[in-house]
Amino acid sequence: MLVSYKWLQEYIDLEGVSAEELAEKITKSGIEVEGVEKLNEGLKGVVVGHVLECEKHPNAEKLNKTLVDLGNGEQVQIICGAPNVGKGQKVAVATVGAVLPGNFKIKKAKLRGEESHGMICSLQELGIEGKLAPKEYAEGIYNFTPDTEIGQDALEALNRDDEILELGLTPNRADAMSMLGVAYEVGAILGKDIKLPNPQPETSTELASDYINVTVEAKEDNPLYVAKVIKNVKVGPSPVWLQTRLMAAGIRPHNNVVDITNFILLEYGQPLHAFDYDKLGSKEILVRRAKDGEVIETLDDVKRTLTPDHLVITNGTEPVALAGVMGGANSEVGSDTTTVLLESAYFTGGVIRKASKDHGLRSEASSRYEKGVDPARVRPAAERAAELMIELAGGEVLGGEAEADALDVKPAVVSTTLGKINKVLGTDLEMNQVEDIFARLKFETAVDNDTITVTVPTRRGDITIEEDLIEEVGRLYGYDNLPTTLPVGESTPGHLSDYQKKRRVVRRYMEGAGLYQAVTYSLTSAEKATQYALDKREPVQLAMPMSEDRSLLRLSIVPQLLEVLKYNIARQTESFAAYETGAVFLKNSNEDLPEEREHLAAAITGLWESHPWQGEKKPVDFFVLKGIVEGLFAKLGLESQLDFAKAELDGLHPGRTAEILLNGNVIGFIGQVHPTQQKSLDLKETYVFELSLKALLEAETAPLQYTAIPRFPSISRDIALVVEKATAAGDLETIITEAGGSLLKEVNVFDLYEGEKMEEGKKSLAFSLKYFDPEKTLTDEDIAKAHNKVLAALEEKAGAVLRG
Amino acid sequence: MQDRLKELQAEALEKVATAADLKELNDVRVSYLGKKGPITEVLKGMGKLSAEERPKMGALANEVRDAISGQIEVKQKELEEAAVQKQLASEQIDVTLPGRPVRTGSHHPLTSIIEEIEDLFIGMGYTVEEGPEVEKDYYNFEALNLPKGHPARDMQDSFYITEETLMRTHTSPVQARTMEKHQGKGPVRIICPGKVYRRDNDDATHSHQFMQIEGLVVDENVRMSDLKGTLEVFAKKMFGEDREIRLRPSFFPFTEPSVEMDISCKICGGSGCSVCKGTGWIEILGAGMVHPNVLEMAGYDSKKYTGFAFGMGPERIAMLKYGVDDIRHFYTNDVRFLKQFSVEE
Ligand SMILES: [Zn+2]
User: Fold this and answer.
1) B170 CA: distance to closest CA in chain A (Å)
2) Is the same domain home to B256 and B198?
3) Containing domain of residue B285, as a range?
4) For residue B277, how far is its CA from the centre of ligand 1 (angstroms)?
């Protein structure tokens, strides 16, 4: 809502309160003022002039040479390029020395050999948007009405000596979508009275009801419909003051009749519609839901197909308006209109919102109906419009009105107590302070001991419960004046859950290991949604996605991380490592919500270690990432529950991929991205892992318990084994561990040899075994006993022989 | 014999003094003090001496040995020191060469903001609650006083999955779920961070996916002044002790009264600049007293219980705090962006 500071003063005395100060006060106690615009910012030296003579420029086809009376006894020659300039016009003249927007200074000039002492201005040149200028002046200079006095400040005549407050209205404050509503609000803030218009149009002896009969079929959508008839109107331009009021509020002037309806919409917040009575083709107005497939051509020349969801105004048979949204082209007021049927109606929000949404049509009228208009203003608004029709269009208002009234709206009566108010706000108010606030709002109150009962005018339809009253008290008392306290009462220990704590540990660990945390989108494409999914389920799909790329919920994070890698590598980053924790979404067939499982995923590419000036460059490989996973499990006390099993998975290198097992259950995978996939992403060797963070963080771990630092030395035995190439080190390790008994405390691979010294199909793996007894120093015999068992088991189970 | 010993001593000391390295010195030790050395040889002739002279000569021999070995020791230290010095002299490095790079990753800036806020409220007795990102219409809207057809549903056009499920448009459903779990009893003090989704085209200021963090306190005597005090603590810790806050009326379907909180603009100090659009204030969050309908629907007696709630966007806070100009940076994960947040603050 755009509020003119100058116009507002017609309803309330703003003496001593500047527009800026007013904006600040309104913002603090009710409605956010998003901006204050000075309309004449950067403008000066423009006067109303009278074009005395106008002829073609002798040397230029498109220019005119004019003589303009500036009203101060001065007559000047001005060269004007506007096609619509003509003798006798009253125009805005930027005189020599004037300044126009953009710091454009007007100087004496010579145009094609002819002197020009100023410039005749279009509205755009005076800072008014072209789409707001009346159509006939949109392409040329503006003409004041003939009665305009010359020599006066043209900016004042155009009401540009004004400031516009832009209100950012929340949906509950529909009451402030009118000048009267704003006046009430400002009155409450400043504690001042307001002057309301008191229309009393003179009426003729003829009755409106003889001209028109109103029937409402859809009473729920339209509880009140009032029609007035105005005869003998002379359609023409509105006076300048009216045009400028509309333009300042962002509405383009059309003609006096239409402008009056828009003026009332702005003043009362009540949308009105003017029909050309003679074009209705009947003496009947019937309001009903549209028939399925019924068509109406609206004022914007668009043919719209309707459904029973939409409300129409008809002449008994044909629609003549899409109720509350836009009139029909068939009954439009034009220059030849002489009799006007003026509609002032109360439509309920739902049906208007539906029509406005279905047809993509949001008008000043529909936006007010959607949020709710004040039913008590339907009649006064019609009266006020009728009065202006007489004054500005020479019309003759017929007596009474044709109407259908099934309205049942009464002011809300809401009670609260002083105790409740003070309890909710944390204040120490007295009853008289509360009463004063409601008096400023012009609400009637009745006080009975601690209870205050408020009769809320229908213009404030947002106030229905006692909390609403408390808000009025709070905001007008001023939130600045509230005390500052902290919650009292039973204290609660603040903490993270174990899961949340561990998740932070995981993040810190991953970052310490050299990975950046990424945050990517949950919504993805059909292709990526299922790629690298641990759990191959059908993805969850949006009913109405905005694009193909964001139409389904991800089942894995890896595809998103690969995109991140691709993005970075394409931008001169040689190496990049990223991880993400986040939900993947698993569709449930029997429940309505999908299962959301938190995953941890990582992707690395490029060099892992490098030492620039020593020439060391170590690219990432499987074991870099595997080490990170192992370290993570160790950090969480889960290393003994971790296993890797060779696997072949879609999108991963078939020889360099493993499943990650926790306690024997697959909870993730690790591997090299399949070379084909790498190529399509323009990535070099890239490794990824993804696992269920939920499984990891919810796994049971033994409580942390101190074990004594050994008092006796441990003894190491190294063995080098020759085995088949396909034999997995992990399997040998398992055999060793199982056979070694309680004395064997540690087994570590320390060498792998697959070179030419080996027999075809064989390799050598060397292990270091550490024996230890917490009770005594081990003897050679103790160790030999255990160690021989290990060697025997290795030979028996894996055909492993000691390397000679 | 005595002369011979003296002679040997002088000879040995001469050699010790001129020994050029540890090996030469050791040769001296072996040749003079060893079992086959000249002193031993000399002492073999002791049998010819009288019983009186024998101990004297023995003592003299020991003196000579001690003198030689003492000198050797001194010399050895000298030589060792020299050897160390020599080695050190040969081991010079250029300390201005760069060190071996240590790989470091870092928190995403949104995580830093969220954790900072979490920790702040944990300190004030809050716990952190999370909930599903795909929500039931009931928890996302209806339980929050947004029945079907409510005009405010337009304010946050949403991604529906089925008629009854959608991508949550705010983290408020976590509040509704938590209150329901508490079965009408207090106190509830929670903070709810998480991802939310709205039907917006991604541009510099909009993202179809973004973060939100909300707080909720429900108890028997929660006052609006408590909300004001809590938000003031938050604003000062988050944005600096010198920040002022102001509450101004606003509207949210789930709170009544509803407010928005602004903080004084750090850049212009309140006089107005482009960041605060000339107002001197910057909008930070929305808040209010929990609407009685919301309390009642979650099973609370709204005559007895009151509550406050507040919600904010970590992106917006990060943008203000760090001067980030485009919300899409948070989701592009450009390393040149992420790297800048590896500093612990
Ligand atoms: Zn500023």
Assistant:
1) 15
2) yes
3) 109-341
4) 7
Closest CA to B257 of A571, A476, A455, A510: A476
Q: Does B98 map to a domain?
A: no
At residue A590 the predicted structure's pLDDT band, cuts being 50, 70 and 90, is low
Burial A121-138 (b: 16+ CB within 10 A, else e): bbbbbbbbeeebbbeebe
Find the B311 Cα to ligand 1 centroid distance in Å: 23
| Whether the predicted pLDDT of A495 surpasses 70 | yes
Q: What whole-number distance in Å separates Cα of residue A71 and Cα of residue A347? A: 51
Complex prediction ipTM: 0.87
Please judge whether B134 and A596 are an interchain contact, meaning their C-beta atoms are less than 8 angstroms apart: yes
Average pLDDT over residues A371-397: 95
Q: Considering the domain A203-405, what is its CATH architecture?
A: 3-Layer(bba) Sandwich (3.50)
Helices first, then strands: H and E counts in chain A: 21, 43
Chain B residues with CB-CB distance to A427 below 8 A: 225
Asked whether the CA dihedral B92, B94, B95, B101 is positive or negative, the reply is negative
Average model confidence (pLDDT) for chain B?
90
Same domain, B182 and B297: yes
Kindly report, residue by residue over A618-627, the tens digit of the pLDDT: 999 999 999 9
Q: How many CB pairs under 8 A join A and B?
A: 248
What value does the mean pLDDT of chain A take?
93
The fold for domain A498-698 equals BirA Bifunctional Protein; domain 2 (3.30.930)
Residue from B128, B154, B164, B223 whose CB has the most chain A CBs within 10 Å, to mutate: B223
Shared-domain flag, residues B113 and B249: yes
Site from B256, B306, B327 to mutate, A interface, most A CB atoms within 10 angstroms: B256
Is B100 a member of any domain? no
Q: Is A472 annotated as a binding residue?
A: yes
Distance in Å, alpha carbon of B124 to nearest chain A alpha carbon:
7
Q: A632-654 pLDDT, tens per residue?
A: 999 999 999 999 999 999 999 99
Q: Which residues of A touch B98 (CB under 8 A)?
A: 612-613
Which residue carries 């990424």 as its tokens?
A: A518
Closest CA to A426 of B247, B238, B312: B247
Residue ranges covered by each domain of chain A: 2-39+163-190, 44-157, 203-405, 412-481, 498-698, 715-802
CATH topology of domain A412-481: Phenylalanyl-tRNA Synthetase; Chain B, domain 1 (3.30.56)
User: Regarding beta strands A523-524 and A552-553, do their DSSP bridges make them parallel or antiparallel, or are they unpaired?
Assistant: antiparallel
